[in-house]
Amino acid sequence: MKRILWVLSLPIITLLYLTIPDCRRQFWRNWFMVTFLISAAWISAITYVLVWMVTIAGETLGIPESVMGLTLLAAGTSVPDTVASVLVARKGNGDMAMSNIVGSNVFDMLCLGIPWFIKTAFTNTSGPIEVNSSGLTYTAISLICSV
């Protein structure tokens, strides 16, 4: 099973290896900001595809977008952060666990605003933005409260 998963993930690993400089190596040591920015771009691209696929699955199954976003996507993004925080806290690094939790929510808040900023700044500068989500207010308030 491990070998099958390795073969299936090999194209993604190769693509990331070729596009992200490894700042642990001596040659790339001073390129850490480029590594960070390219990693953030990859996370954004993969997240876009994930949301797109969840939206298609929700439309196919007749599930509203707000329900899909609040359950599937929220759990999919929060569970790995929670597991990482628990593992770090068990090793005795509670400050790292707290910074992971706070940093994750701050990153979520920034990522919520960036698409709308791009749309208003470059696409439609005169009109309001139409958002088709009834659960957006609840999501934004939850993130702000958790931060």
TrEMBL record:
Family assignment from sequence similarity: Belongs to the Ca(2+):cation antiporter (CaCA) (TC 2.A.19) family. SLC24A subfamily.
Cellular compartments annotated: Membrane
Keywords, alphabetical: Antiport, Calcium, Calcium transport, Ion transport, Membrane, Potassium, Potassium transport, Signal, Sodium, Sodium transport, Symport, Transmembrane, Transmembrane helix, Transport
Boundaries of every Sodium/calcium exchanger membrane region domain copy: 32-145
Transmembrane residue ranges: 31-55, 67-89, 101-118
GO terms of biological process kind: intracellular calcium ion homeostasis; melanocyte differentiation
Highest taxon of the lineage: Eukaryota
Membrane topology: Multi-pass membrane protein
GO terms for MF: calcium channel activity; calcium, potassium:sodium antiporter activity; symporter activity
InterPro entries: K/Na/Ca-exchanger (IPR004481), NaCa_Exmemb (IPR004837), NCX_ion-bd_dom_sf (IPR044880)
Principal location listed in the UniProt entry: membrane
Catalysed reactions, as listed in the record: Ca(2+)(out) + K(+)(out) + 4 Na(+)(in) = Ca(2+)(in) + K(+)(in) + 4 Na(+)(out)
The name this protein goes by in its record: NCKX5 protein
Pfam families in UniProt: Na_Ca_ex
UniProt key word Coiled coil: no
Species of origin: Irena cyanogastra (Philippine fairy-bluebird)
A GO cellular component entry from the record: membrane
Tagged with keyword ATP-binding: no
